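Re-running the complex after MR caught last week's input typo. The corrected sequence lines follow. Everything else is unchanged.
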Amino acid sequence: MSQAPDLPLWAALLVSLLVVAGAGVAFLGSLGLVRLRSFYSRVHAPSLGATLGAGCILIASMICFSVLRSRPMVHELLISLFVTITTPVTLMLLARAALYRDHAEGRTNVPPLPKRRPEGAGPGEGTT
Amino acid sequence: MSALILGWSLTLAQLLLGLAMGCAVLRLLRGPRAQDRILGLDTLYVNSMLLLLTIGMRSGATLYFEAALIIGLLGFVGTVALSKFLMRGEVIE
Amino acid sequence: MEMVLAIGIGIFAGSGVWLLLRPRTYQVIVGLALLSYAVNLFIFSMGRLRVDSPPILKPGSVGDAALIADPIPQALVLTAIVIGFAMTALFLVVLLAARGRTGTDHVDGRES
Amino acid sequence: MRSTLVDHLVILPILLPLAVGAAMLLFDERRRVLKATLSITTLLALLAIAVTLAVFANAVPETDISSIIVYPLGSWPPPFGIVLVSDRLSAMMLVLTAVLGCSAMTYALARWHKAGPRFHTLFLLLIAGLNGAFLTGDLFNLFVFFEVLLAASYGLVLHGSGTARVKAGLHYIPINLVASSLFLVGVSLIYGVTGTLNMADLARLIPALGDQSRTLVEAGAAVLGVAFLVKAGMWPLSFWLPTTYAAACAPVAAMFAIMTKVGVYVILRLALLCFGEDAGASADFGITWLYYGGMATLAFGGIGVLASQSMSRLAGYSVLASSGTLLAAIGTSNSAVISGALFYLASSTFALSAFFLLIELIERGRDAGADVLAVTMEVFGDAEDDAEEEEEEIGIAIPATTAILGGAFVACTVLLAGLPPLSGFIAKFAMLSALINEAGAIPFAHWAFVVLLVGTGLASLIAMTRTGIRSLWVPAEGTLPPVRAVELIPVGALLFLCVAMTAVGGPAMRYMEATAQVLHWPSEYASDVLGTSTTRSMRPATTP
Amino acid sequence: MSDGFLLLVVLTLPFAGSLLAVFLPTNARNTAGILAGGISVTCCAILAWLYFAAPAGVPVWLRLDWLPMLGLDFTLRLDGLAWLFAVLIYGIGTLVVLYARYYMSSEDPVPRFFSFLLAFTGSMAGVVLSGNLIQLVFFWELTSLFSFLLIGYWHHNNTARDGARMALTVTATGGLCLFVGALLIGRIVGSYDLDEILNSGDLIRESSLYAPALVLILLGTFTKSAQFPFHFWLPHAMAAPTPVSAYLHSATMVKAGIFLMIRLWPVMAGTDLWFYLIVPTGLLTLLVGAYSAIFQQDLKGLLAYSTISHLGLITLMIGLGSPLALIAAIFHTMNHAIFKASLFMAAGIIDHETGTRDIRKLSGLYRALPYTGTLAMVAAASMAGVPLLNGFLSKEMFFAEAVADHTGSLLDDSLPYWATLAGVFSVTYSLRFILNVFFGPPAKDLPREPHEPAHWMRFPIELLVLICLLIGIVPNLTVGSPLRNAARSVVGPELPPFSLSIWHGFNLPLLMSVIALCGGIILYMLLRRYLASGVEGPPLVRELKGQRIFEKVLATISWQWARALEHALGTRRLQPQMRLVVALAVVAGLSPFYVRGMVGTGDLAGTPLPPGFALLWAIGIACGIGAAYQAKYHRLAALVLLGGAGLVSCITFVWLSAPDLAVTQLLVEIVTTVLLLLGLRWLPQRIEDVYPTRPPPSVLFRRYADLAIAVAVGASLSFLAYAMMTRPLPTSVSRFFVERAYTEGGGTNIVNVILVDFRGFDTMGEIVVLCLVALTVFALLRRFRPAEESIETPAQQRYQDAFDDAEPDRAPGETIRDYLLIPRLIMLWLFPVIGTFAVYLFMRGHDLPGGGFAAGITLSIGFVVQYMASGTRWVEDHLRVLPLRWMGLGLLTSAFTGMGSWWFGYPFLTSHFQYVELPVIGKVPAASALLFDLGVFALVVGATVLILIALAHQSLRSTRSARAMEGE
Amino acid sequence: MNRILTRILPHPKLFLALLAMWLLMNQSVSPGQILFGALVAFGGAWSMVALQPEPVRLRRPRAMITLAWRVFLDVFSSNFAVARIILRGRDGDRNAGFMTVQLDMTSHYGLAVLSIILTCTPGTLWVNYTSSTGTLLLHVLDLVDEEEWTRLIKERYERLLMEIFE
Ligand code: NA
Ligand code: NA
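Corrected-run output:
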C-alpha cells in the first residue's frame, strides 16, 4: 500500500474527519438496508450515502486536492450535482414499481392506487 | 505524520465503505423481492462511487475521478432500466 | 493482494464455467459474462499488481517502465472488454431467437 | 524493406475488404447491383493481390527465406509494433481465401445475398478477418482477427435465419466464445512470462527460457493450443462443427471450408515457429498430441461421413476428416509430409467448398425427409424383391442441369475420396509417399496414419456413392431444381482448379515443398522479421 | 511424330473423344458411334504401326514431367505385354462399339454411353501403358470409376445401381490397397518407375516389406479380377448393358488384375508366399466359378460365373511361378477375351431379340436364330476347350502345367485332379448354354418374337469366332509372334521352349481333356432334370450369396456401426461438448506442470493487502457465486448480482492503477445491464423444474462432475494467476511504449496511445468486431419471432392498462405517463449533459483516461436514456439516429486515417502529431490518432445504439402484430 | 434581439450550464477551453432543440437561494434522524407509512424539483404523483404526525417552488 499524500496537518485532519464521517454515514445508510424490515422503509436508506455521505467525502476530496494542487479543485461539485439529480429518479421509479407490483399481487398493506378523487386516501400501514 | 493520519483514516473509511457495500450485497443476495435486489445494487453503486473517491484521495491523483463521475452521472441508468422493467415488464416501450 | 485477486479470479471463472455447463441459455450467458470478468482480470494480473502507479505520464516526460503499471495488459483487457461486450450482445439475441423458434430455453433447442 | 508498392500490397487484403464493406453500410439495402459489383470487383482485386504476393514470395530460390515481406504497422519496429508478415504460407492462404471468396460470392449473387440484411458487408469483413489472421505476425493481433472472422462467421451462419441456423448458432457461438477465452488466457500467460506478443520474438525467446518460465509458457501454449484446436475441429473438440456447417447457407458453408484451416494454419505456424527443432527444451512440444489427435479426428471424420444421412452433414464430417489429416500431418513434423499436407490443404479446401455449393443445388427442390427414408429402406429393405421385377432397359435422358450436377458430384466424390484423376489423389499420394518413405523403419503411428488416410478415403467413397446414387440416380419425381448458371460457374471453377492442380501438379507441389522447407527454419524467419528496420526515426514528429 | 508421342495419342484420343461425346445431343447415336469407333480403329492402327515400326524387344517410351519431386513422371511404356493387352482393349473395343451401336435403343441417350465407354477404354489403356507404378494405380482407379458409371448406366434400375455400387466399392477398395502396395514397392526400390522396379526383383523379394506389399497388391488384383472371395461383384455387374459386359468382363476391367500380376511377375513371383497366396485363390475361384456357372438361370449370369472361373484359371497359372505357366496364362487371357466377348454379344442378341435372358424361358432358338446360334456354339465350344478352337490350346497348356511339378506340396500334387474337375464343369455349363437355349422345343411366351439381328450387329461375333477358329487351327501363324513378344517382356529374352500346335501326341493333358469332355457331357445329362426344375442358384452353396453378405456387411459396418460409433464418440448436444472443451483446456494447461514439475510461487514481494480490498473481494465472490446460484430461477437476481461482480472488478481496476479499464468496464457494465433487460422481456417465465423432487442419480452425478470441472478451472486459473503475479515482470516490450508514448506517440495516457497508435491495428479489428456483431444482431432481429408466451404485452402493462380503463376518469396509459412524468423530464435534460461528458471523455483520451470507445459508449447511453424515458416512437420522431451511417463512417474514418500515412510514404497507421499554435487559444494538439479515435467513437456509438435499438424495436413490432391479429 | 439570440443560441441557460460543466470537468478556464467548451455547449444546446422540452421559466433567484438553504438544512438534519431510526434496531421503522398530499403546483419542473428535494431528504420518499388530481403519495419513515409533514411540504417547499416556476 502506497503512502497517502502529504497534506498540511490541518487539512489532513479535516479531510480524515470528513472522509470517516462520510463513510460512516454511508455505512449507516447501507446498514438500514439490512436492518429495516419493509421494502418501503429500506428505500430511504441509500439516500444517506447519496447525500450526507457523498457530501462529506466530496468535500474532503475537494479540500484534499485543492491543497495538494494549491488551486481550487471543485469538479467534485459535478458529482454531487449529478448524484442529487439522478438518485431521486431511481428511488422514485423503484418505489413506484414496487407499489404497483404489490398491487398486482393483491397485497393489502399498501395504499390504493390513485383515483381522481382521493377518497380517504389516508396513511397506509407501511410495514409488512 | 499527516500522511499517516490520512492514510489510517482513509483505510478506515474504505473499510466502512466496504462494510456498507457488504450490507448492500447482503440485500442483493437475500432479496426477498426483486425490488430489494435492485435497491441493493443501487446502494452498491453509490457506495462504490464513494470508495473510488477515497482511492483517488489516497493516490493523490485525480485520474480516478472520471470513474466516480461516470457512476454519478450514469450509474442510475441501470437502476432505471431495472425499475422500469419491474414496473412495465419492458425497458423501452 | 495477489492472493485475494487470484482467489477472486478463480471464483469468477469457476462460477462462470459452472453456468456454462448448465442447460439453460440464460445460465450460459451469465456464465459467459462471469468468465469474461475472470479472463479480463487474469490478463490484467499478467502485468503484476501495482497500486497508485497508473500508466499515465506527466506531460513532457519520458516514462520509466519500472515505476508504472504495465500498460500492455491494460490495453489488451480493453480490447477484450469490448469484444466481450459485443459477444454478450450477440449471444443474447441468438438465445432470444432460439427461444422464440424452438419454444424452449434449453441450449440444445429441445428439452432432453 | 523492398519496394513500396509491394509493401503496401501486404495490407490491402485486410484493408480493401474492410473499407469496401464499411462503405457499403452507407448505401441503402436495396442497391443490390451496386453492392454486387463492388463485392465482386473487390474480391477479384483481392485474388490478384494474393496471387501477386504468392508470386513474390515464390520469386526467390527455395533455399532462401528472405522473400518474406514484413510490414510494420504504424512504422513501429518489430517486436514492438504489430507486423504483418507475408511469406509463402500466408500468401497461399490468401489465395485460397480469395478464390473461395470469389466463388462463394458469385454463387450468393443468385439468391442468397438477398436472404438477409448486410450480407455483403458481413462477407467482406469475414474475408478481411481471414486475411488478417493469415498475415499477422502478432499473437494478440491474431486474437483480434480471429474475433473478426468469428464475429463475421456468427453473422453469416445465421444469415437467412431459420430454426436450424439459430439452433446451430446456439452451439457454435458459446463454444467459440469459450475458445476465445482460452485464447486470451494463453496469450496473456505467454506475455506474462516472455514480455512479448510478437511471434518471431517469441521464437527467439523461447529457447533461452528458464525452467519454471518454460513450464509456464508451455502451459500458456497448451491452453492456446486447445483454443486453436477447437477452431481446427480436432476430436473431441469438434462436435459442434458438422451441425453448424450443415446449417449454414451454401455460400457461407463454402466460405467456411477455410475456417477450420485457419486453426490449422495457426497451429502449423506456431508449432514450427515457436516449438520447432530450434526451441531448445521445448522442441516438438505437444507435437505427439497433435499427431494422435489428428488421427482421432480423421477417424471420427470418416465414421461421421459414413453415419451421415444428409449430404450437408456428410460434408461437415468431411471437413473434420480434412482437418484431422492436416493436424496429423503437422504432428509428423516431417517436412515432406507437411508439403504434401499443404497441397492437400489447398485441394481439400477447393473440393469442400465446391461440395457445399453443390449440395444446395442438388437438394434444392428435394424433400428433406426423403433422405432418411431412403437410407433406411436401403439398409433394411430386401434388395432381392426389387430385383425380381422386370426393368426397363432403356436409359433415361438426363436434363443438362442434372448431368452437370451429377458430373460435379462425381468430381467431388473423387476429390474427397482421394481418387484419381483429381488433385485429391495427388495430395494423398504426396502424404502417403512421404510417410512410407520416412527414413529408417516406418514407425507404427505412420502405419496407423496410412491406414486411416486410405480408410477415410474409402469411407468417403462409400458414403458419397450411397448419397449420390440416392439423390442423383434414383428417378426423382417432381420438377427440376431451378439452378442458375451463376451458381454453376463457381462450382465449375473450383473443380477446374482441382483439375489444374493435378495437371500442373509439379509447380504447385514445388511451391508447397518450398513452403514446408522454409517453415522448418524458424530462426531465419525470426531474424528476418525482427531485423526489419523502420523509418521511425525519420517520421514527421515534432517533440512538444 | 515420335513413337512415344504416338503412345500419347493412343492414350489421350479416347479421353478426348469422351469429352467430345458429352457435348453431343442426346439422340446423336450414329455420330457418337462413329466417333467412338473411329477412335478405336485409329488406336488399333497406331498400335499395329508401332508393332512393326518399333524395334523388337525395346519398349517404346514417353516420359513427361509431372511431379518429379514425388518420383511421379508421366511415363508411357509399350512392350510386348502392353501391346498385346492394348490390342485386346482397342480391338475388342472397336467391335463392342459396333455392336453397341445396334444394341442400344435409339431412345437411349447413347452419347453419354459412348462417352463413358471411351473414357473407360482410355483408362484401361492407361493401366497397360503406364511406365510408372503410381501412374498405373491412377488409371487403375479410373477404370473402377468409369466402370461404375458404365454398369450404372441404366441407373433408373435398382439392380444397375446396386451392381455399380458394389463393383465400385469392391474394386476401389482393392485399388486403395494396391495403392499402398505400390507405395511400399516404391520404398523398397526407391522409385516408382516400372523399368527400375522390373530391374529390382531381388531387392523386392528380399525386402522385409515384400510380404505386406505383395498382400496389398494382390488384394488389388484379386478384387479387380473377381477372385474368390471377392468375385461376387462381377455377376451383379451384369446389370450393365450387354456391350459393357462384353467389354468389361472379357478383355478389360477384369483383365487389369491379371495384367498387373503378369507385369509384376518377374519381380514378385517365385516365392512360396506368391505360390500359396495365388494358387489356392485361383483354384478356388476356378472351381467355385465353374460350379456356380452350371446352375445359373440367367444367360449372362452363366457367362459371368464362367468368366470368374476362367479368371481363376489364369490366376492359378500365374501363381504357379513357372515361365511356361505364365505363357499359358497370357495365351489364355487372350483366348478368353476373344471367346467370352463373342459369347456375351451372342447372349446380348438373344436378350435383345427375345426380351429375356432367363434360360428357363428360352428354348429351341436355333430355328429363329440359326446364324447366331451357330456362332454361339463355336464360341461355347472354345470355352469348353473343344479341339481346333483357341480355348482348347490354352487349356491343354494349363493341364500340362497342372501336371508339372512346382513346389511338390500336396496342393501342387493334387492340381491335375482339380483341373480336370474344372474342365468337367466348364463342359457342362457350355453344353447347358447351347442345348438349353438353341435346342429343344420352341419357346412359348417369349416377350418378343425373335429374328436374326441386323447384320452389323452380328458382325463382331462373326469376326471373333473366326479368330477363335484361326487361332485354334493355325496358332503359330496367327498369335505366335505377339505371344512370344509378350512373354519375352515378362519372362526375359530367353523363353523356355514351348510349342503352339494342336497336336502334342497322346499325353496326360490330352487324357484330362478327354475326361473333361466326357465327364462334362455325363454331368450335364445327370443334372438335366434338376436344372429343368428351375431352381435358382447352385446347390450346397445356394445360401451363401456373396452379394447378400456384402450388402449386409457393408450396411452393418458402414451404416449401423458407423452410426453407433458416431453416437458413442460424438454428441450433438452442447453440454458434453462444453464439458470436454473446458476439461481438456484444464488438462492441457496443467500438463506442463505434470511433465516438467511443479512451479512454486515467485520471489516478487507481495503487495500489502488493505482490508477494504479484502472486503471488496468478499463481496465480489459473494456476487459471483450468487449469480451462479440464482441464474436458473431468478434471472433478474442473477443479472443484478452479475452487475455487482462487474462493479467489483471495476473497482479492482481502479485500485490497481488501471483507470482506463475502470471507466470502460463501468460503461460497458451499464450498457450490458440494459441490454440483458431488453432481452429478458422476451424470455418468458421459466418452465417448471424438470425434476420437481430429487433429480435422478445420473443427473446428480453430472452436476457433481460439472462442479468438479468448475472447481478445477477456478483452481487452475487461480494458481496460474498467483504463480505469475508473484514472479517479477520480464523485460517487456512495454518499456518501448512507456518511453515513446509521449515523445513519439504524443500522448501521456500510455494505454490510449497503445490503443490508437502503437497497436492501433488491434483497435481497428476490435471495432470491426463490434460492427459485425451489431449487423448480426440487426439482421437476426429483423426476422425475430418471439416465443409464444411473450408475444403479448407484459402482464404489468396489461394490469395497469386495465386499471386505467376501469376507472371512469382515467384513460389507458395514464399510469405510465404519471410514472415517467418527472423522471422523463430529468432524463430529457440529461441528454446534452451526457453528450458533453462524452465529448469530454473523447478529448482527454489521449492524455488521460477516456478515449473514443468510452466516449462512444457514453453517448449511446445518452441515447438509450432517451429511449427509456420517452419511448421508441417519440425518440425517433425527434432524433434521427442512423446507426448504420455512424458505423460506416466511423469505420471509414479510422481506415482512411490509417491510409493517410501512405501519402507520406509510411506504412498504414503511421501516426502524425504536432501542436498547432492558434491565436488566443494557444497550443492545440493535432494528432492523426485523434482522428482515428474519432472513427472508433462513431462506430461505437453506431454499433451500440443499433444493438440496443434493434432490441427495443421488438416491443413495437409485437404490439403491431398483436394489433394486426386483433384486426383480423 | 432576444429572438435573434434564441435563433442562434437556443436554451442559453443550458448553454451556460454546459459551459460551466465543461470548465469544471477540465478544471481550467484557459481561453482554449472556454472556446472549445462553448463549442460543445453550443452543440448541446442545439441538440436540445430536437428534443423539444417544455419551456422552463425561472424567476426569483432569492427564492431559489432560500429554498436551497432550507433543503440543505433539512437534508442534514434528516440524515441524523434517519440514522437514529436505523440504529434503533429491528423495528426502527415501526412508524413508517404512506401518506398523501394534495399539491397545488402544476409546473412539471417545480414538481421535479420537489421530487428531488423530498427524495433526497432521507426519511421522505416521493412514491407517486397523479397528475390528473395533483395527488402526491409519499412514504415517510417517521410518520408520527401526518399534518406536520403536509405542512412542511406545502409551506416550506411548494410555495417557494411555485414562486420560482409559476
Ligand atoms: Na502340379
Ligand atoms: Na428521501
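None of the earlier attempt is carried over here. DSSP finds six helices and three strands in chain F. The pocket of sodium ion (ligand 2) is lined by residues A 44, 47; F 119-122, 124-125 (CB under 6 Å).
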